[in-house]
Amino acid sequence: MKKFHITTFGCQMNKHDSERMAGLLIERGYAPCGDPTEADVIIFNTCAVRQHAEDRFFGNLNNLKADKKANPDLIIAVGGCVAQAERELILEKCPHVDIVFGTHNMPNLGFMVEAAEQGRRAVCAVADEIEILPTAVPSAREEAHHAWVPIIIGCNNFCSYCIVPHTRGRETSRTQEDIVSEVERLVSEGVIEITLLGQNVNSYGRDIYGGSRFAQLLNRLNNVAGLSRIRFMTSHPKDLTDDIIYAIANGDKICEHVHLPVQAGSDRLLRAMNRKYTKEGYLATISKIYEAIPGVSITTDIMVGFPGETEEDFLHTLDVVEKARFDSAFTFIFSPREGTPAATMANEVPAGIKSERFDRLLALLNGINLENNLALLGQELEVFVESVSKRDDSILTGRTRTNKIVNFEGSADLVHTEAVTRITQAKTWSLRGELLEVAVKS
Ligand code: SAH
Ligand code: SF4
Ligand code: F3S
């Protein structure tokens, strides 16, 4: 049996696309393998969001030159966002690549592999717009209990720093019926937790229903029997309307966690980023969320070093962090992406200042994470048990509805069940708890 290996870079959408790629190849009789040196087909699912992600991919790809020389039958395929944005560069610079396929061409991966096997070298398929929704192809899920469910693909926002609208195209929503029936099928296969995916889930439905239907979709999914947790990401602050906040507050299956990327605190920078909200507007949304959803956790993405960022601008970012009390944050240093407006903006921030600001930001975030976690001491929190700890097999790792990790003593047969723990110790990145009761067996 022939084997394939997939290396995935980037966001959850890419992780999910990789599951679809695996599904397509398994359908064609290939078997997944963990070790790329044993694979007949090696696939890279790439990310172009920052230079660093792209460099890591090109590094990995170059390392395969010798393998390809030693085994000319090896098939190397490159998909995802770098393939979409830079097909020429890959074909020119990397003659050992057999297949380049764009984000919209993934459903045809099986045919492309077949063509490469028959020696039709350098198969390249990069379409500009979506033809087949990738959700129409089979998926080989990484986990039995959890599934990623894309609800909207692409992005119309064109934040001035961001490559994603160029690599994923315009917003394309699936119908509510299609999504609900997929979720029902997933539940019948044993899934109890889903994460709804989109670059901006709040816009869900706009392209097909003439207005956002995200709140309605959440309400409908909340009625799916047998499902226990509904997560979603990412929310755009400009579109997080009251009906969505109420849907989260009222839906018993909808987890009390909102990932709401702020990017920066200064209105001047937010305007230059084309984010379409102000610091005050963002903080007002945050207050509404805290008021409406007891115990909610709010996480974010923050970027430092956007062109022209002054110390004063940066202090506004720190101020938002203090006021919003984030439970965690993904932090990034601005990376110019060719073809985006920010890449050619003047007043690049010197590297030393960027990294000094980055460190100050992290120190503040870490302190607040810890304070938030300390406030949970003594509380009884429901966790879904995900795994046995790699370091100590008497310790289980679970996740709260608010997406926090709780480690506690317990036996391995509790994995993939829900349990109630009391929090006994708080750290910056995780909580320690004790098992109180075992809830539903999934
Ligand atoms: N759709 C999501 C985010 C997608 S990209 C949203 O709208 O928030 C994930 C994160 O990468 C972004 O939130 C941003 O913080 C970061 N990012 C995107 N482009 C970047 C760039 N050019 N340089 C540095 N960070 C970037
Ligand atoms: Fe990029 Fe902005 Fe779209 Fe998010 S909303 S994917 S940051 S353009
Ligand atoms: Fe990266 Fe593409 Fe996702 S650029 S963040 S993999 S949409």
Automatic annotation (TrEMBL):
Cofactor(s) needed: [4Fe-4S] cluster
All copies of domain Radical SAM core, residue ranges: 141-371
The reaction(s) this protein catalyses: N(6)-dimethylallyladenosine(37) in tRNA + (sulfur carrier)-SH + AH2 + 2 S-adenosyl-L-methionine = 2-methylsulfanyl-N(6)-dimethylallyladenosine(37) in tRNA + (sulfur carrier)-H + 5'-deoxyadenosine + L-methionine + A + S-adenosyl-L-homocysteine + 2 H(+)
PROSITE patterns: MTTASE_N, MTTASE_RADICAL, RADICAL_SAM, TRAM
Cofactor binding note: Binds 2 [4Fe-4S] clusters. One cluster is coordinated with 3 cysteines and an exchangeable S-adenosyl-L-methionine.
TRAM domain: residues covered: 374-437
GO CC entries: cytosol
Keyword list, A-Z: 4Fe-4S, Cytoplasm, Iron, Iron-sulfur, Metal-binding, S-adenosyl-L-methionine, Transferase, tRNA processing
Residues that hold [4Fe-4S] cluster 1 according to the record: 11, 47, 81
Chief subcellular location: cytoplasm
MTTase N-terminal domain: residues covered: 2-118
A GO molecular-function annotation: tRNA-2-methylthio-N(6)-dimethylallyladenosine(37) synthase activity
EC number of this enzyme: 2.8.4.3
Domain of life: Bacteria
Cell compartments where the protein resides: Cytoplasm
Description of how the protein assembles with itself and partners: Monomer.
Protein function: Catalyzes the methylthiolation of N6-(dimethylallyl)adenosine (i(6)A), leading to the formation of 2-methylthio-N6-(dimethylallyl)adenosine (ms(2)i(6)A) at position 37 in tRNAs that read codons beginning with uridine.
HAMAP family, alphabetized: tRNA_metthiotr_MiaB
UniProt xrefs under PANTHER family: CDK5 REGULATORY SUBUNIT-ASSOCIATED PROTEIN 1 (PTHR43020), MITOCHONDRIAL TRNA METHYLTHIOTRANSFERASE CDK5RAP1 (PTHR43020:SF2)
Protein name as annotated: tRNA-2-methylthio-N(6)-dimethylallyladenosine synthase
Gene behind the chain: miaB
